[in-house]
């Protein structure tokens, strides 16, 4: 079976498929041509990152799947209910046979059989299952491909607050995508489904994603013309595009420099999308530009694929979960893929972190083993006292040009390094982005390994639409791996979750919190020493100036006064050095964040001691709540550190 999270499929772009089962035969060829143009254009634009998610029902789903096979596009097969029950819903024996054949196709990368929605009347069970499928398609696909006639029999404007009666059809999925789930989804479906923890927040600002509408007449329309949202007739196979996400602007070679020089007007940051509306796609199968979020996902996937090829990421060791701990009960391909993706995201984040902050900073204990790497934060901070010292030496000792040259070098070199290397390569953003990805994947892995069928993309960065918004979208693909693994685990392995997640993280937060707090105290002490030294040197200099007319040899006095003057001029920069380190490393804030996370995991550990191995539902509730709290804490950390760039401080 092909993998979704091995290079180059580390962060797939998922296209969810919805459509009519009863396509008008006379329109079939036009619809096929429209779908083929769409998938070919997506394949050309997204490359091997493209993955199709389809329920393989008769009609639209099987039509799209067959064309995907022709174009060698990988698929995720989703059965809205146990497969045996779903097979019986096919109208013809040919449809059931095609379902089985496509379900077992080699291009299917993952297979999900959705659980039964609980507390349903028998007459409403199928409707609840299809509504659950619609929710999955709406939430977890990056693009919704709708083979639809464009007609909604129950538009929200015409229902006056009443619930939708017909659920799970194409018009229902499109309405969820466009209007949101409130007012479109039966709350009972969400609360009684194992896949969802609740409705999105009422004031959620996260984007749902684009819709590609292939105009598809139905047999029941009896050849009637399809219409768009404005009532205009549309020919079968016409492609229409709707998006609530802004596209990437025109590429300019020096855009990165614009973003650095005018950070208050960044061109690469998301803008608020204009009011979304349907528009006909003129180009073959796609609009001129896909949303900028998709470009960020592709760039991140390419970087992670390169990182996966390094020796560091190839080692069998994993901080997340050692190989020996993947026991037979959890030795699932989906879990291995999640662990692999976490490893490379964590490795890349750590690599950039070492470039920025190094393996040692003032305030931290000297590493006992391993190679010491000095990060750019320390070099940028050292440039401040060094430049000041050079200028003071130039001013005090004969104005030798060498001191002026060193002074200029101390200003120009860090500035050029920041502009041409750090800023252009987005080191700070990459570090935080990949750290956010890794933390999301950590929670997704332990949810999956513990049998919690929850998607991290539904619970992470829901109030972020800017440069952080794409991370939640990027996690939609791995979340499907997590759901697939969790749905196969009937009984959570309590001991595994307790040892490898709760206790490991508890010890980590305790260790790091103490370390950051001690570093903060040390830097504060060093800053005070620098200030007190400055005062003492000023007093000594004053005494020497007054004694210059005494019997002390003038040459000795002048040398001492000159040396003290240089030291006096440099000491404020030394104090600034420690302040820059404290500000860039954020010791205080990190100590506070680690303390909060420690308290959350300590409470989880306390509650876990009261649960037995047979308390499966209680374990799932505890681990779901723990993951949600961990994601909230990490989102706050990422957002706070976005405002703390590691930059040249000279000048």
Describe the structure.
- The chain is α/β, with parallel strands linked by helices and 651 residues long.
- It contains 21 helices and 10 strands.
- α2 links the parallel β2 (50-54) and β3.
- The chain is elongated, with a radius of gyration of 30 Å.
Précis, in short:
54% of the residues lie in helices and 7% in strands. It is built from 21 helices and ten strands.
Query: How many angstroms does the end-to-end distance come to?
Result: 57 Å
Number of helices: 21
Strand numbers in spatial order across the main sheet: 4-3-2-1-5-6-9-10
Biggest sheet descriptor:
8 strands, mixed
- β-strand number: 10
Percent helix range = 40-55%
**Overall 3D shape:** elongated
Secondary structure class reads alpha/beta
Poorly predicted regions: 262-273
Query: What is the radius of gyration?
Result: 30 Å
Strand content: 5-15%
What is the residue-averaged pLDDT?
A: 84
Spell out the key features of this protein:
single chain; alpha/beta; two-stranded antiparallel ribbon; 21 helices; 651 residues; 8-stranded mixed beta sheet
Lay out the secondary structure:
Blueprint lengths: L12 E7 L8 H19 L3 E5 L5 H11 L3 E6 L3 H5 L5 H11 L4 E6 L11 H16 L2 E6 L7 H4 L10 H10 L7 H5 L19 E5 L10 E2 L5 E2 L4 E4 L12 H7 L17 E2 L11 H17 L2 H4 L18 H25 L18 H21 L4 H23 L3 H23 L19 H6 L1 H11 L7 H53 L7 H32 L1 H22 L7 H26 L10
Helix pairs in contact: 1-2, 5-7, 10-12, 12-15, 12-17, 13-14, 13-19, 15-17, 15-21, 18-19, 18-20, 20-21
């Amino acid at each position: 079976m092909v993998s979704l999270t091995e290079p180059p499929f580390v962060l797939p772009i998922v296209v969810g498929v919805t459509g009519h089962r009863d396509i008008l035969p006379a329109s079939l060829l036009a619809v096929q041509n429209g779908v083929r143009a769409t998938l070919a254009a997506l394949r050309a634009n997204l490359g091997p990152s493209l993955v199709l998610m389809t329920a393989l029902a008769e009609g639209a789903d099987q039509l799209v799947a067959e064309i995907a096979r022709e174009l060698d596009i990988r698929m995720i097969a989703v059965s809205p209910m146990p497969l045996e029950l779903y097979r019986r819903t096919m109208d013809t024996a040919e449809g059931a046979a095609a379902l089985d054949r496509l379900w077992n196709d080699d291009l299917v990368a993952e297979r999900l059989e959705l659980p039964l929605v609980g507390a349903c009347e028998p007459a409403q069970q199928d409707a609840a299952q299809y509504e659950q499928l619609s929710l999955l398609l709406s939430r977890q696909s990056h693009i919704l491909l709708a083979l639809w006639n464009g007609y909604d029999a129950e538009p929200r404007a015409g229902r006056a607050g009443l619930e939708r009666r017909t659920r799970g059809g194409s018009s229902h999925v499109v309405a969820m995508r466009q209007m949101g789930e409130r007012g479109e989804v039966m709350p009972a479906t969400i609360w009684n489904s194992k896949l969802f923890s609740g409705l999105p927040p009422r004031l959620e600002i996260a984007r749902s994603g684009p819709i590609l509408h292939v105009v598809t007449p139905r047999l029941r329309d009896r050849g009637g013309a399809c219409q768009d949202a404005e009532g205009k007739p549309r020919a079968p196979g016409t492609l229409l595009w709707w998006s609530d996400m802004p596209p990437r602007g025109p590429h300019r070679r020096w855009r990165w420099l614009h973003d650095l020089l005018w950070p208050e007007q960044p061109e690469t940051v998301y803008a608020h999308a204009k009011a979304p509306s349907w528009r006909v796609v003129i180009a073959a199968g796609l609009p001129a530009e896909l949303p900028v979020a998709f470009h960020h996902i592709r760039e991140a996937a390419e970087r992670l694929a390169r990182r996966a090829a390094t020796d560091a990421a190839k080692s069998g060791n994993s901080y997340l979960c050692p190989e020996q701990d993947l026991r037979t009960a959890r030795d699932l391909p989906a879990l291995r893929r999640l662990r692999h993706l976490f490893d490379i995201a964590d490795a890349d984040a750590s690599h950039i972190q070492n470039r920025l902050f190094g393996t040692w900073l003032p305030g931290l204990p000297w590493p006992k083993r391993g190679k010491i790497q000095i990060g750019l934060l320390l070099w940028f901070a050292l440039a401040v006292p060094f430049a000041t010292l050079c200028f003071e030496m130039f001013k005090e000792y004969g104005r030798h040009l060498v001191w002026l040259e060193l002074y200029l070098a101390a200003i120009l070199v860090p500035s050029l390094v920041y502009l041409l290397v750090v800023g252009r390569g987005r080191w700070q953003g990459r570090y935080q982005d990949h750290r956010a990805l890794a933390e999301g994947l950590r929670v997704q892995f332990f949810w999956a390994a513990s049998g919690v069928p929850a998607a991290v993309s539904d619970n992470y960065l829901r109030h972020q639409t800017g440069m952080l918004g794409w991370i939640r979208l990027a996690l939609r693909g791995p979340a499907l791996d997590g759901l697939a693994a969790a749905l196969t685990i009937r009984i959570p392995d309590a001991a595994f979750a307790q040892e490898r997640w709760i206790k490991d993280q508890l010890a980590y937060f305790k260790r790091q919190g103490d370390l950051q707090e001690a570093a903060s105290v040390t830097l504060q002490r060093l800053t005070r020493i620098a200030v007190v030294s400055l005062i003492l040197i000023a007093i000594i200099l004053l005494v020497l100036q007054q004694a210059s007319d005494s019997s002390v040899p003038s040459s000795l006095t002048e040398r001492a006064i000159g040396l003290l003057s240089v030291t006096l001029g440099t000491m404020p920069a030394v104090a600034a050095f420690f302040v820059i380190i404290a500000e860039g490393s954020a010791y205080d804030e990190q100590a506070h964040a680690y303390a909060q996370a420690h308290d959350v995991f300590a409470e989880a550990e306390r509650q876990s001691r009261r649960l037995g191995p047979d308390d499966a539902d209680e374990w799932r509730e505890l681990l779901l709540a723990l993951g949600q709290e961990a994601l909230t804490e990490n989102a706050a950390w990422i957002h706070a550190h976005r405002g703390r760039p590691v930059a040249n401080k000279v000048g």
